[in-house]
Design a protein that fits this description.
2 strands; binds zinc ion; two-stranded antiparallel sheet
């Protein structure tokens, strides 16, 4: 999928999608924010960095425990 505005390749989940007569159009995060399709969240990043630690081993250990019961 590519951003309809700037043509940049997007991941599997675009920041925003708009249904048009030609079909579903995907928008990148920057263009969607500029067009007002999504809200800008300036502080979100700092909060995420504080709460989510970069420890993949811990997450992998916790997942089997939740499914074990
Ligand atoms: Zn774009």
């Amino acid at each position: 999928m590519k951003c309809v505005k700037c043509g940049r390749p997007l991941g599997p989940k675009p920041a925003a999608t708009v249904q048009t007569a030609q079909g579903l159009s995907a928008w990148g995060p920057v263009c969607a924010r500029r067009a007002g399709l999504i809200e800008a969240k300036p502080r979100q990043r700092a909060i995420q960095l504080r709460t989510t630690s970069h420890r993949p081993e811990e997450t992998e250990d916790q997942l089997p425990l939740e499914f074990a019961a």
